[in-house]
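2 proteins. here.
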Amino acid sequence: MPRTATKLKVFTFLAVLVAAFNLRSAIVSVGAVLDELVQAFDASGAIAGIITAIPGIAFGIFGVAAVPLAKKIGLSGALTSGMVVGLIGLAIRPWVGDIWAFIFLTGFVVMGIAIANILLPAWIKLHGGKNTVALMTVYTTVLGVGSTLGPLSTLLFNGSDAWRWAIFIWVIPAALQVVIWLPMWWNKKYDFPAQTVTIGSVAKIWTSPTAFFIMLFFGLQSMNAYIQMGWLPKIFIDAGVSPAHASIGLSIVGIMGIVGGITMPFAIARTRNKNLVWFPVVFGISMFLGYVGTWLWPAQGWFLWSFFLGFGGLCFPMAIALIPARTRDPRITASLSGFAQPVGYILAALGPLAVGAIYQALGSWSEILIGLALGTIVLSIVGFRAARNLMVDDELAIPN
């Protein structure tokens, strides 16, 4: 193999690795210091709910805008631009003195992440070649690594401004990804695929029952994920768990995400379709146990409840895998992805926002955890329907 081709392959691998790592670390690190952050700004629980809801809102809004942006400046250009904007937000937001400035700059941070959520898989498919499967494995696995390490930055610093340094430290990997992606953009130039399909001309995707339930399943599991990323450490801390252990608990949830990223695609591929419907039921039961345990015995078994919540979080790789598994025509696959992810993320944003408002009104986590536990029953039922062996193409009656 020519040396230039080898270097490009290595550079492509590094580009995917750093991009995937930055997709979650900057989000979960805020959840780990949310209690200190709220106290420093003298903010209310409702404001804290807004902070935890921002990722879902941004993922929905900018997820819709990602493809049009890529059409104008290319996939590499859109990804790199988002990374630069995110870096600006990461560098400035820890040092502002106003909560609304912090929220505004958090919007910068998640803007770049939202664009990468939608476009990075497409970039891998376009540039991965024979290494596409390996790059996708790197993508899903390292995304889980970022979720795991994000909360642990709180263990590195002490003092009154420790929370500021704990979220500022993630500017280092963010700067590294910009350094790697700027020459990647220069190398790839305008790299949006020449032949595109107008998704809206394919079909009204929301008229497919299976597509609708996949969107609901994606949204409900994302809602639980962002509630946990934003509020789980505070729930543990309020119950008497040390801040260090609370951060470790959130990291356990992230570790399960790594395991799911590696194992779930293989498990789904090797499972008969008629048995696939039981996956979300098992995951829902696990999440139910995690919420009930956190409600009744949070201080005694925080590590066990974190494990159950993390195992239930394997709904995420399953929801992603259902998008290609329940479609045949690539046009329908693209349409389903463009429908399920943005709409699902907007639905997910309502969860952390509601939790913040309810906690502000009641001052207690018991009612919230009971509600979340009951919600896992709905998640299991929706997931059961979404995983049935029915093809979206057939429900839309798309002509060949």
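next one coming up
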Amino acid sequence: MWDTPEEIEADKKTIISILKQTGINVEDEQIRFVDSGNRHKSKYPKNHIAIYTFQYQGVS
């Protein structure tokens, strides 16, 4: 999904900015990016939020 670590960091900063605008304060280390491929089962523990993003032909 991401080609470089810089792309991951840019997306992280965007998500953190959006969350802060809605009053949710999170730290950088609280966000993990996992490329699970297609058709997967979530392995996130309870009380965690999962944000799914999708990309088609290199466009998010």
